[in-house]
Design a protein that fits this description.
about 140 residues, mainly alpha, elongated
């Protein structure tokens, strides 16, 4: 770990009013996205990867833009924190969070594909997983 210590202490830029405002805006967008997604999901929400009784496939609200908007919101919050810090460690945490969310989304998708089959396949073709229009 001693080898990584100098790298982990590196900063890409110093914190400024502009970087702070950008970070705040990204965090706020993440929080709004998460709340909007959670409200839209309603009774279908669970912290665990499970299907609820009478589970519905939600494709409206933020789910019209990404299939996993709660994860998108968390990722935006972590990105905002990385922007605020300007540090290598902050951006490393962002990358780790991104891939962790993508992995959990992948696990959820297997279950949703099994349950909703063709309907979910069509939804996947139209809507990206985490980042609108990208992935």
């Amino acid at each position: 770990m001693a080898v990584l210590a100098p790298i982990m202490d590196d900063y890409f830029y110093t914190h400024s009013l502009i970087s702070g405002l950008i970070a705040d805006a990204v965090v706020l967008l993440g929080v709004i996205t998460m709340i909007w997604a959670r409200v839209t999901l309603g009774k279908n929400w669970s912290a665990n990867v499970v299907l609820k009784e009478d589970h519905e496939l939600i494709m409206t609200g933020p789910y019209a833009y990404v299939r996993h908007p709660i994860y998108s919101g968390v990722i935006l919050i972590v990105l905002g924190l990385a922007i605020y810090s300007g540090s290598f460690a902050g951006y490393l945490l962002f990358v780790l969070f991104f891939f962790g969310a993508y992995y959990k989304a992948y696990k959820e998708e297997k279950l949703l594909l099994e349950h909703f089959s063709e309907k979910y396949i069509l939804y996947k073709k139209k809507v990206k997983a985490i980042v609108p229009f990208i992935c």
